[in-house]
Amino acid sequence: MVEMTTWAHTLRAVELVAMLMRHPCPIASASPKARLFSTRSVILRPPPVSAMTTMMNTEDHHSSAPTHLDTIFRMKRTLRSRVKKELKAMDPTIRSLEDNAIQNIVLEAPWFKSRKRLCAYISCSALREVDTSKVLSEILQNSAKDGYSQMGKKLYVPRVEDKNCHMRMLNISSMDDLIANSMNILEPAPIDANGNEREDVMLANEPVDLFLLPGLAFDKCGRRLGRGGGYYDTFLARYQQLAEERKWKQPLLIALSYSPQIMDEGAIPVTPTDVPVDALVTPSGVLPISAAALERCC
Ligand SMILES: Nc1nc2c(c(=O)[nH]1)N(C=O)[C@@H](CNc1ccc(C(=O)N[C@@H](CCC(=O)O)C(=O)O)cc1)CN2
Ligand SMILES: Nc1ncnc2c1ncn2[C@@H]1O[C@H](COP(=O)(O)OP(=O)(O)OP(=O)(O)O)[C@@H](O)[C@H]1O
C-alpha cells in the first residue's frame, strides 16, 4: 500500500523503472569501463526492497510503476519459457560438446586456477544446466590432495533454506556430502558426517574470489535471467554488501552459458534487484563484460 512508503522512494523507483524501460541496455554502446559503471550504478543501487514490494502491490493510480514491473516480470516469464524450450530442443551431442568446451575453458583459465575460494552450483541435467561436474571434481580433488584446505581450493555450494528467496552457500569437501532436495537438485545437509555444522560462506573469515553462476539466459552486457526464485540475486546482493563492509575485493561473478542462452545486449528485461555478472563462459570462449573481468579474465 502506498501509505507505507514515502513519495521519495516511490518517485526514485518509478524513475529507475522508467529509465530501464526507456534504455533497455544503458551500457550497450559505452566503452567497457563505462559499461560496468553504468550497469552497476543502474542495477546495483535498488530502492529499498520494502519500497519495491510496496510498489508492486500498490493500487495507486498516480504511479505507473506497478504496470512497468508487471510488464518486466511478464517479459521475463515469456523469455524463460522460450529459452527452456530451446534448451529442451538442443541436440544432446551438441549439448555434451558444449559442456566439455565450457568446462575445459574454466579449468584452463588463469582466473580459475588462481582462485582459492569458490562458490559454484551443482548442475542439474533435468534443468538443462551447463554441467559443472568436471569443474567441481577438480576443485574437490585439489582441496583433498593438499590435505590442508588452506592450501587447496575451498568450495561452497547452494542450499535452499525456504521459499522466501533464502539460500545459503555451505562448504563441502566431497560430492558424497550432497543429497537431492525436493526440486531434485543436489545440495549439502547443514550438518556434516562428523556432526559438525558446515561452514556458511556468509560467516567465513575470508572472502570468496569467484562465483560460477547458473541461469536461463544472459546478455552481452551482463544481465542474467534466473529461474524466477530470486535466490541468487538476493544472495549476491547480501554477499556484495558483506564484502563492502569488510573491505574485501568483490568476487568475480562468472556465468556458464550454452549458445542458445546468449542474448544480444539489452535483450534481458531487468528490475533494480537483478545483479549483473562480470563475464560469461560460452563454448567459444570467455566474454569479459565488466572492468573487473577485463582486468582479471583476459
Ligand atoms: N543447480 C542449481 N542449483 C540451484 C539453483 C539453480 O538455479 N541451479 N538455484 C537458483 O535459484 C537455487 C534453487 N532454485 C531453483 C528455482 C527453481 C527451480 C526449478 O526447478 N524451476 C522450474 C520451474 C518451476 C516452476 O515454475 O514452478 C524450471 O525452471 O523449470 C529449481 C531451483 C539454488 N540451487
Ligand atoms: N535482493 C533482493 N531482495 C529481495 N528480493 C529480491 C532480491 N532480488 C530479487 N528479489 C525478488 O525475487 C523475485 C524473483 O526475482 P527475479 O525474477 O529477478 O529472479 P531470478 O533472477 O530469475 O532468480 P535467481 O536470482 O534465483 O536466479 C522477485 O520477486 C524479486 O523482487
Automatic annotation (TrEMBL):
Gene3D superfamilies assigned: NagB/RpiA/CoA transferase-like
Top class in the EC scheme: ligase
Key word Metal-binding present: yes
Catalytic activity of the protein: (6S)-5-formyl-5,6,7,8-tetrahydrofolate + ATP = (6R)-5,10-methenyltetrahydrofolate + ADP + phosphate
Signal peptide, first to last residue: none
Keyword Magnesium: yes
UniProt-listed Enzyme Commission number(s): 6.3.3.2
GO MF, one annotated term: metal ion binding
Cofactor(s) needed: Mg(2+)
Keyword list, A-Z: ATP-binding, Magnesium, Metal-binding, Nucleotide-binding
Database matches in PANTHER family: 5-FORMYLTETRAHYDROFOLATE CYCLO-LIGASE, ATPASE INHIBITOR/5-FORMYLTETRAHYDROFOLATE CYCLO-LIGASE
Family assignment from sequence similarity: Belongs to the 5-formyltetrahydrofolate cyclo-ligase family.
Protein name: 5-formyltetrahydrofolate cyclo-ligase
Origin organism lineage: Eukaryota, Viridiplantae, Streptophyta, Embryophyta, Tracheophyta
